[in-house]
Amino acid sequence: MIIARTLPELNAAREALGPLGFVPTMGALHQGHLALVAAAGAAGKAVAASIFVNPTQFGPKDDFARYPRDEAGDLAKLESAGCALAWLPGVDIMYPPHGASSIHVAGPALHWEGAARPGHFAGVATVVAKLFGQIRPEAAYFGEKDWQQVQVVSRMVADLHLPVCIVPVPTVREPDGLAMSSRNAYLTAPERKAAPALHTALQHAVRDIIAGKEVAATLHHARQEVALAGMVPDYIALVHAETLEPAAALVRPARLIAAAKLGHVRLLDNVPAG
Ligand code: AMP
Question: How does strand 232-240 pair with strand 254-262?
Fold first, then answer.
């Protein structure tokens, strides 16, 4: 595996490798990230992964400084997953001192995580656009765990006519249903035990909505279920799967999305809803 830390190193690696499938990450890699690498590899192209903890997608109250970092462990995991190129740029490369351009996002970025974390999706879109410009991949792989992020990036790629195919990859879960996340490492033992209740509540709600139960009452019940498990639900919502607009009744395609605070950790999850 080639490890590139400068733009000349990256460009030389790109020349050598040919067409690329790309997996952007913030490191602290787990099986969810490696499923993206596997999906990219299965498509037959060489796989490039980036590790960059992007400061512009963290708010002032977020965990940028204490975000988990394990470069040596991450590189070993990428190598054994068959990655051909690891791109590890510094902040000065991604955000040069005289930089004056960024991506503005609206539409699917406005609600939910966008409302809870002002500036978050503008930071995500900007760094993803820069990474696409550097790596110039044919396809890029994103996890459905961050459903809204996939829609924001897909919208950006369509709007800006970027020549990259966005491929969503299903959420990888722990055996008890908890969606794998780098931030799960922050959970205390009792919190870790309680955490799968978010996914369970979504499964119950989607079952009831598909069975024809009233959406508002079902979502209210799901919030109660999550609160009973010791979490503070932020939102549990039925939305149009692409626009992320709230849906009062079942639309197609629909997604049930949720965020809840468990201790200091914000858990995200979502499931298809028809
Ligand atoms: P992150 O390092 O958290 O920015 O995530 C990098 C990529 O991995 C994003 O596309 C995430 O959606 C994806 N990802 C994170 N957790 C999972 C998971 N449990 N299953 C599938 N993809 C995931």
Answer: antiparallel
Ligand 1 close to Cβ of residue 120 (< 6 A):
no
DSSP state of 238: E
Atom 10 (ligand 1) nearest CA: 142
Q: Is 255 touching ligand 1 by the criterion CB < 6 Å?
A: no
Provide the whole-model pTM. Answer: 0.98
Residue 61 has pLDDT above 90, yes or no: no
Q: Are 68 and 185 in contact (CB under 8 A)?
A: yes
Domains of the chain: 2-169 (3.40.50.620), 182-269 (3.30.1300.10)
Using the mean position of ligand 1's atoms as its centre, give its distance from the Cα of residue 141 in Å.
9
Task: Report, as residue numbers or ranges, the catalytic residues.
Answer: 33
Strands 2-4 and 20-25 turn out to be: unpaired
Q: Is 219 helix (H, G, I), strand (E, B) or coil?
A: helix
Is 171 near ligand 1, meaning CB less than 6 Å away? yes
Q: Is the pLDDT reported for residue 274 higher than 90?
A: no
Q: Are 219 and 199 in contact (CB under 8 A)?
A: no
User: Which pLDDT band holds residue 233 (cuts at 50, 70, 90)?
Assistant: very high
137 Cα to the center of ligand 1, angstroms: 18
Q: CB of 130 closer than 6 A to ligand 1?
A: no
> Distance from the CA of 268 to the center of ligand 1, in angstroms?
11
The residues near 7 (Cβ < 8 Å, ≥ 6 apart) are 93, 134
Separation CA 106–CA 122 (nearest Å): 9
Closest-CA residue, ligand 1 atom 11, reads 143
Q: How far is Cα 91 from Cα 20, in angstroms, rounded to an integer? A: 23
